[in-house]
Amino acid sequence: MIWDTWLRRYRWERRLDKELRFHLEQQIRDNIKAGLNAEEARAKAYRDFGAIELAKEECWDERPLRWLDDLIWDSRFAARIFVRNPGFAFTIVLMLTLGVGANTAAFSIVYAVLLRPLPLPSGDRVTSNRL
Fold first, then answer.
1. What is the percentage of the chain residues whose pLDDT exceeds 70?
2. Is 81:88 a contact under the CB 8 Å cutoff?
3. pLDDT on residue 55
4. CA gap 131, 114 in Å, rounded
5. In the prediction, which pLDDT does 124 show?
6. H-run or E-run covering 40
7. Could you give the CA distance from residue 36 to residue 40 in angstroms, rounded to a whole number?
8. Dihedrals phi, psi of 128, to nearest 5 degrees
């Protein structure tokens, strides 16, 4: 169901739009039954119901795989920026490479000095006799 919603989001969005418009039209009919003319009933329904696009965005934000849409959107935006500014893209890749390399080197040193057990039999029982 979750993937179905994401893969068929255009159908889902049309269905959501249809449902919200149905509720708005129902509100207009209720206002007309309450004694308002058609124009006043429509205006009151829009005031009470609020913006349809805002309601659609709020429903859209509640979807389970919203993060996937955000990831795709952000990746496409980053790709456009990198294509427009290749120097910036090169600088970012270089900084990421240096950062990953520095972290790998630091962890290798910490592992070799502090975390790896001593290469002795019963290395975890070795202690110092200094006072």
1. 86
2. yes
3. 77
4. 22
5. 67
6. helix 38-49
7. 6
8. -95, 145
Residue with tokens 């900084």: 95
The series of mean pLDDT values per 10 residues for the chain, 131 residues long, is 61 81 88 86 83 76 75 91 90 95 96 80 70 56
Cβ 6 vs Cβ 65: under 8 Å? yes
pLDDT of 4 reads: 60
Whether residue 20 contacts residue 38, with contact meaning beta carbons closer than 8 Å, is answered with no
The residue type found at 124 is D
- Whether 56 and 16 have beta carbons less than 8 Å apart is answered as yes
**For residues 93 and 91, what is the distance between their CA atoms, to the nearest angstrom?**
6
d(CA 4, CA 62): 15
Cβ–Cβ under 8 Å, residues 58 and 52: no
Gyration radius (Cα) of the chain, Å: 30
Delimit the domains of the chain by residue range. 2-65
